[in-house]
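Let us work through a complete example step by step.
Step 1: write down the sequence.
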Amino acid sequence: MDFFVYLCNNQFMPERPKRPKRPRDLNLLAKMIVEIATEGEPAEIPSEKNPHAVALGKLGGMKGGPARAKKLSARERKESARKAAKARWKRVQISKPDEKL
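Step 2: predict the structure and record it as tokens.
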């Protein structure tokens, strides 16, 4: 019995090839199939944006939010947060059960 365990659990046992798991989502599955068919090299789309301008815009955005929050009063911040939450919840659609035809 010990010999059998040794044979099954030694370093000479070949390993199975690693394959990515097949996604359950149909869109992700379709993307995976296209990547396999094109040998995993998606066509790169050249960016038309200037990378320096993108970096500057990102830097300004990081500074702008805290500066604006510092400038607003507590009441104005609360009102702004309430307005943002209302806008987020407005997007949520309550699904109704299917009506019988």
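Step 3: interpret the result. Helices lie at 2-8, 26-37, 51-71, 74-91.
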